Amino acid sequence: MAQQEIKIGIENVYKIFGPDPGSVLDRVKGGASKQDLLEDTGHTIGIRDVSLDIGVGQIFVVMGLSGSGKSTLIRHINRLIEPTDGRILVDGEDVLRLDAEALRHLRRYKMSMVFQRFALLPHKTVIDNVMSGLQIRDEAGGGIAKRLGLSSGKASAEARERAQAQVDLVGLQGFENQYPSQLSGGMQQRVGLARALATDAEVLLMDEAFSALDPLIRNDMQDQLIQIQNELSKTIVFITHDLDEALRIGDHIAILKDGELRQVGPPEEILMAPADDYVSRFVKDVNRGRVITVGSIANDYPTVVLGAAGFSDALAKLEASERNTVYVCDGDGRPVGAVTTKMAQEGRDLSGPIADDAKLDPVQTVDSAAVIEDMLPLSMKTEVPVAVLDGDGALAGGVPRRTVLSALVRREE
Question: The whole model's pTM is what?
Answer without folding.
Answer: 0.78
